[in-house]
Amino acid sequence: ANDEAAGAANNGALPPDLSLIIKARHGGADYVFNLLNGYCEAPAGKQLLPGLYYNPYFAGGAIGMPAPLMDESVTYPDGTPATVSQMAKDVSVFLAWAAEPEHDERKKAGFRWILALSIAAIVAGFTKRFRWAPLKARKISYNF
User: Fold this and answer.
1) What residues contact 26, with CB distance under 8 A and at least 6 apart?
2) Pairwise CA distance, residues 143 & 21, whole Å
3) Quick check: 87 and 73 in contact, CB under 8 A?
4) Which of 46, 92, 102, 122 is an S-S bond match for 42, by CB 3.0 to 4.6 Å?
5) How many CA atoms lie within 13 A of 116 on its CB side?
6) What is the C-alpha to C-alpha distance for residues 68 and 98, in angstroms, rounded to an integer?
7) How many Cβ atoms from other residues are within 10 Å of residue 3's Cβ?
8) What element of type H or E holds 37?
9) What's this model's pTM, rounded to 2 decimal places?
10) Cα–Cα distance between 107 and 49 in angstroms, integer?
11) What's residue 76's pLDDT?
12) What's the CA gap between 3 and 20, in Å, rounded?
């Protein structure tokens, strides 16, 4: 909530607003999940500057953020093992929800609209058929 405290905790830089990171990055939640899981040793021949860490999912492979997740750093109430992969999945799913909290309601409303329009189209089709059937079925004869 305080910009000065946030800057002090992050070496003078304000932390980014991650509420829209899922929508901003190609790959969305998969990108964040892979980024959080992708920290590893740099391959042979790849030199990193001091203070940088290797992550093949980050553009260029060198990222200034150390691995933010460690195994068993949280405790789940249901006994789920707190692996880096599980925590990364939780973070990416939460950020996807934070980007669009109305997503589920919008999908439900869209389904209701499609269902209602389908029913209306069927009713309109049957109404048209029965309304015009007597006129189409009549036989017209011309006597000259």
Assistant:
1) none
2) 78
3) yes
4) 46
5) 6
6) 19
7) 9
8) helix 29-37
9) 0.71
10) 46
11) 93
12) 19
